[in-house]
Each structure stands twice: as structure tokens, then as C-alpha cells.
Write a structure and sequence with these properties.
MurNAc-LAA_cat; about 25% helix; alpha+beta; 4 domains; SH3 type barrels; SH3 domain-containing protein; globular; hydrolase
Length: about 425
């Protein structure tokens, strides 16, 4: 009889635990879905900004549920799988429940609160938030709270955030990591021969050319362009990627004019599960890019430059993580390393330096390419190409394909220590020229 009672007692406890887990699971799902939209079209483009003129960053399918973060010009800013942030046209989805106005606002309670990539203190750090700043809360689970941070989703310890009764709609809470437009007072030029244009695009007539360190009064923003006024009263538009902004009286640091002052990001392409191209010798691109990155880092550090690698081991990094690192540390140059591969073995050969924006990246590409011409592998020159780590990089950036890994003639150099050291020397010399 005693055994039977014990059996029923254990089962009651087990049922109670299962019920609590079910309720906990339901509440988490309910919170995640409380601010959802449902895709109605067969497929919908997700763009980097609220308009058809912005680049396409992917698609979502019919039936997908998306969490709304913001609304602008009949576009919804939404959170996608993998915590990516993008914009979708409101007329292509069915807003079945609520709008961005129901996103809750929280206040940071702890100085220099760390924002993590995942709900895990061992995950990558996205940055920090100052005490008393307001943040938009997107999601909560147990000890962690997900917030909108620098245009993406980040996680902070729930105990560090004080919830409020306000919503983002009632307070106009904005991304805590970015200065609001009202806070910007000055923009400072960081690139040589920066153009002030009459219209907010690269085809607009040039009003004047500005030197590094030149400051303008901030008047407003149009897409990725700032509307500014010079001390002589002239008004025009300047590209956001060639200036820094300031909301204080303190000076804004200009771009480095000497390599010893520079912060340089070296990005070894691929890594982890992404092995990249494969040679006929069963060696992988990811291993070569890392070895070359370390060789370049070693050479550059002899000049006094600060060098940061996007990965230092065989780990996976998203393209977004790689590009965002430039902005996060205000890098003066970003160089992504890769090795080409042709559809048929031995069908391709040569080295190519790619850039995305001629005004922002062209000088860096030219200076590096001029040094790389001395390498044993033939040089294909520079070329414009829309590559993610360049397109979504706010800093001067290039991607170098250092030869064809599945070419017998190129591979004998790629696999040699001598060629690797030559590349490191040439990249260092190219950067020395760039920062003169």
C-alpha cells in the first residue's frame, strides 16, 4: 500500500512539473507572437531600409510570422530568423494583431550593460549600453531580455533592465546604440576629397570638395545622406559613410593619416562549417585565408597599427558580423581575404581586388592593388562588385581574391610560405601608401 501511495505521489509531482513547463513554454511563445505579422504573398523581399530603393537582403515566404519593431513610410521593420533585422512592405503582409506601438520600453539599470549576440554570457559581445538609457524590448525569456540594438537584435540580462508601462509608440523610443537625429549637431569628414552635393545621391552636382577634418552643421537626413550647412551658408548633402557624427562639444576623431594610428580589420573568409573552395589537394580555402590573415597581422603590427581579425580560429562568423565589426570599432580599413575557384579545374588564374563604392573604397583598392602587382600570380586589377561585406560596411573596405585555389599554377604559390609572406608585405606597403 505504501508503494502505491509513493507511486501516485511521484506521478503527481511529475504531472505538476510537466504542467508548469507547458505553461512556461506557452507564455514564452505567446510573448514572442504578441506583436506579429503574417506574410500573405507567396514571397516577399526583405530590404535593408524602408523603401524599394534599398538593397534586397533576402525573402520570407507565405505564412511566415514576423515580429514588428517599427513602422515607417508604410513599411514594417521586422525581426527575422537568426535575429536579423529588415524591412518589408506593409501591403504585402497581414497585420493580424498589433503594431510596433505595442513594443515595450525598458530602462537600463546598470552602468555599461553588456549586449550579447545570444541569450548566453559566453556568446559574442555586440556592445554596451549606458545606465538610464531607454531600450525597445522585443522578447523575454527567463533571465534574458531581447532588445533592439544597432539595427539588430541583442540580449541583456533581464535583471539589468527595468520594465515600464510605456510602449515604444508612446515614447518614440529609438535604437539605444544610435544617436537620434535630434542629438546630431555636427558631422566631420573622414575621407580625402569628400564631395558636398546638391542632391542626396552620387550623381548630384558637386557644391564643393572638403578635406579630412572639415566640419558641417547637421540639418537632417535623407536615406544614407546627411543634409548639412557650411560656415559660409552653403547647403548640400554628404554621404553618411564618409563622415562621423557628434552630439557633443568634444572633437570627433578623424580618419588615420598614418598607418601607426590606424585600426585595420582583416577578415579571413569562411570558417567553421563553411569551408569555402576546395583545391585538388583536398585543402580548403578557410584554412588558407586564416593563415594569410595571421601573416598580414604580424607584418602590420610591426608598423604600430592596431589589427583586429574577424576570426582567429576555425569558427563561423556571419557576413553581417564581419561587416558590423568595422563600424563597431571605427576601423580605418577593412580587408576581406579569399581565394577564387573556377567551375572547371585550371580554368582560371589571377588575383583580383574588389570594391563596392568607388568614393568610399576606391582609393584603398587602388593602393593595395598597386603593390600586389609584383606577386608571382597574375593580377586582374580592381573591379566593382556588390559583395555583402563591402556593401554593408560603413568603413573603407575591399575583398581580395588571392588566386585560384583549383588552378595548378596558382596553387603552387598559394601553398608556399614565400608567397604568403609576399602578400603580407605587399598589403602592408599598400596600407602605408593609403594612410600617407
Amino acid at each position: 500500500m505504501k508503494k502505491i501511495k509513493t507511486f501516485f505521489m511521484k506521478n503527481r509531482i511529475l504531472l505538476a512539473i510537466l504542467l508548469l513547463l507547458a505553461l512556461s513554454s506557452w507564455s514564452t511563445v505567446a510573448l514572442a507572437s504578441a506583436n506579429a505579422v503574417v506574410v500573405q504573398s507567396d514571397s516577399v523581399n526583405v530590404r535593408v531600409g524602408p523603401g524599394l530603393s534599398y538593397a534586397n537582403m533576402g525573402q520570407v515566404k507565405k505564412g511566415d510570422k514576423l515580429a514588428i519593431l517599427d513602422e515607417k513610410n508604410k513599411w514594417y521593420q521586422v525581426r527575422l530568423s537568426g535575429d536579423k533585422i529588415g524591412w518589408v512592405a506593409s501591403w504585402l503582409i497581414d497585420n493580424t494583431e498589433v503594431s510596433s506601438a505595442t513594443n515595450k520600453v525598458g530602462i537600463v539599470k546598470v552602468p555599461n550593460t553588456t549586449v550579447f549576440k545570444n541569450a548566453d554570457a559566453n556568446s559574442d559581445v555586440l556592445g554596451t549600453i549606458e545606465q538610464s538609457q531607454k531600450v525597445t524590448i522585443m522578447y523575454q525569456e527567463q533571465d534574458w531580455t531581447q532588445i533592439l540594438y544597432s539595427g539588430t537584435a541583442g540580449w541583456v540580462k533581464s535583471s539589468f533592465i527595468q520594465g515600464t508601462d510605456k510602449t515604444s509608440g508612446s515614447t518614440n523610443a529609438s535604437d539605444s546604440a544610435n544617436s537620434s537625429d535630434n542629438d546630431i549637431k555636427k558631422v566631420t569628414v573622414t575621407q580625402p576629397s569628400t564631395k558636398l552635393r546638391i542632391e542626396p545621391n552620387q550623381n548630384g552636382r558637386v557644391v564643393k570638395t572638403a578635406k579630412v577634418g572639415k566640419q558641417f552643421d547637421y540639418l537632417g537626413k535623407d536615406g544614407k545622406w546627411y543634409k548639412v550647412r557650411d560656415s559660409d551658408g552653403s547647403v548640400g548633402y554628404i554621404a553618411s559613410w564618409v563622415v562621423t557624427i557628434s552630439g557633443t562639444k568634444s572633437a570627433v576623431k578623424s580618419a588615420a593619416t598614418n598607418i601607426s594610428e590606424a585600426t585595420i580589420v582583416i577578415d579571413p573568409g569562411h570558417g567553421g562549417d563553411d569551408s569555402g573552395a576546395e583545391s585538388k589537394k583536398n585543402t580548403y580555402e578557410k584554412n588558407f585565408t586564416l593563415a594569410y590573415a595571421k601573416a598580414i597581422k604580424q607584418q602590420l603590427e610591426k608598423t604600430g597599427a592596431r589589427v583586429v581579425l574577424t576570426r582567429s580560429g576555425d569558427d563561423s562568423k556571419s557576413l553581417g558580423q564581419r561587416a558590423r565589426l568595422s563600424s563597431k570599432i571605427q576601423a580605418d580599413a577593412f580587408i576581406s581575404l579569399h581565394f577564387d575557384s573556377s567551375a572547371q579545374a585550371n580554368a582560371g588564374s589571377g588575383l583580383t581586388t574588389y570594391y563596392y563604392n568607388k568614393n568610399k573604397d576606391g582609393e584603398l583598392a587602388d593602393d593595395l592593388n598597386s603593390q600586389l602587382k609584383s606577386l608571382s600570380i597574375g593580377n586582374r586589377g580592381t573591379a566593382q562588385k556588390d559583395l555583402y561585406v563591402l556593401h554593408y560596411n560603413s568603413q573603407p573596405s575591399v575583398l581580395i581574391e588571392l588566386g585560384y585555389i583549383n588552378s595548378k599554377s596558382d596553387y603552387k604559390y598559394i601553398n608556399s610560405a614565400k608567397y604568403k609572406q609576399q602578400v603580407a608585405t605587399d598589403v602592408t606597403n599598400g596600407l602605408k601608401e593609403y594612410f600617407k
